[in-house]
Design a protein that fits this description.
Oligomer: single chain
CATH topology of the largest domain: Elongation Factor Tu (Ef-tu), domain 3
CATH architecture of the largest domain: Beta Barrel
Number of strands: 16
Low-confidence stretches: 360-371
Shape: rod-shaped
CATH superfamily of the largest domain: Efflux pump adaptor protein, beta barrel domain
Length: 371
């Protein structure tokens, strides 16, 4: 019974199932509907490119000129700032300690200069004058003693040696008197001008050192140089902020009152772009949201492509021409860093090639006449 009925039935069922599998698997798979309909160019002939929204001042990466630990953060993401506002501050305790030392040295230099300028002290002049008076009296006494010795008629009453001693005593007294008078004159003349100039230079040097430390302290408070909005804050209290150019900036800011779109145009289509041509940007994910663009400028240097759209047919080993277009922020609810599809009106490819390959009539006629 099994060989006569069951096995043939199973064979026929297997063949039928195989035929059904072949038929159903050979049918084409229906294409999946896109999550969002792609945008369509509003021009008959155009050049398309991927654009990235950026601030009108370009995205400014904030760093620090010196490394240090962050002790204060003055802003938050989304806050509007004006030029000169502080963003964050680094630890400055070591510099403030050095500033105290420099300020003390400055005080000493100023006091030294003031002392030189105030000389002579009023209390020193009477003392010097008294020394002059004492020297005058001593000189007069020495002269009187010499005169008495020389007035003795009897040379036997006083020896020649005593007369010489009294003459030398007169010379010593006169020298001491001259010294005392010179010291009094020097005291009344005050400080020497070169000494005052040296002290003045020392004060200037000390002030420069104080200003240098104050500048270093001020540099530890990072401030913005342009007005705009804080787009990113990638630093936290207590973190170590590394100086130099970083792959992830400590902060990112820019002026977003008016936005720019940086469009990448393939170098093969760069020659078709006209600065006076109309351009329209579409928001990805909603083709009904679009805005006309105003030409800002063209970057005159072709660069390697960096902005990727994710398309499987996209070329990543190409170079692009970058164009900047602007639009008001109120025209579209987009964010800085968002990608957009940009279409730039361009003449038809055949027409443009013919216009470029055909020389103007005047030049053609001139060449023909010359030949």
């Amino acid at each position: 019974m099994i060989r006569k009925y069951v096995l043939p039935f199973l064979a026929v069922a297997g063949v039928a199932f195989a035929l059904w599998t072949v038929v159903t698997s050979s049918q084409p798979i229906p294409a999946a509907l896109p999550v969002a309909l792609p945008s369509q160019a509003p021009f008959a002939s155009f050049v398309a490119g991927a654009g990235i929204v950026e601030a009108s001042t370009e995205n400014i990466a904030i760093g620090t000129p010196v490394s240090g630990v962050v002790t204060e953060i003055f802003v938050t993401v989304g806050r509007a700032v004006t030029a000169g506002d502080p963003l964050f501050k680094l630890d400055d305790r070591n510099l403030r300690a050095e500033l105290a030392v420099r300020q003390t040295a400055l005080w000493q230099a100023k006091e030294k200069l003031a002392r030189l300028k105030s000389m002579p002290r009023p209390e020193e002049v009477p003392e010097a004058a008294a020394r002059v008076k004492e020297a005058e009296v001593s000189s007069a006494d020495a002269n009187n003693q010499l005169a008495l010795a020389e007035s003795v008629r009897d040379k036997r009453a006083i020896s020649e040696d005593q007369i010489l001693r009294r003459r030398y005593a007169v010379q010593v007294a006169e020298a001491r008197l001259a010294q005392a008078r010179a010291q009094l004159a020097l005291l009344k003349a005050g400080s020497w001008k070169p000494d005052i100039e040296v002290a003045t230079a020392e004060v200037a040097a000390a002030e420069a050192q104080v200003q240098s430390i104050e500048t270093d302290i001020e540099r530890l408070t990072i401030r913005t140089l342009v007005s705009g909005q804080v787009l990113q804050v990638n630093i936290r209290l207590g973190e170590f902020a590394q100086a130099g150019v970083l792959q992830t900036p400590l902060m990112l800011l820019g002026n977003v009152d008016r936005l720019h779109v940086r469009v990448d145009i393939d170098e093969n289509d760069a020659w078709r772009v006209r600065r006076e041509a109309q351009a329209v940007a579409f928001v990805r994910g909603n083709r009904d949201m679009n805005t006309p663009l105003q030409y800002v400028r063209t970057e005159p240097y072709i660069v390697p492509k960096r902005s990727l759209t994710g398309d499987t047919t996209e070329r990543v080993d190409t170079r692009v021409l970058q164009l900047l277009y602007g639009f008001d922020r109120d025209d579209l609810p987009v964010y800085v860093g968002q990608q957009m599809d940009v279409y730039i009106e361009a003449p038809p490819l055949e027409t443009d090639v013919v216009q470029r390959s055909t020389p103007p009539r005047g030049k053609s006629a001139g060449r023909k006449g010359e030949s």
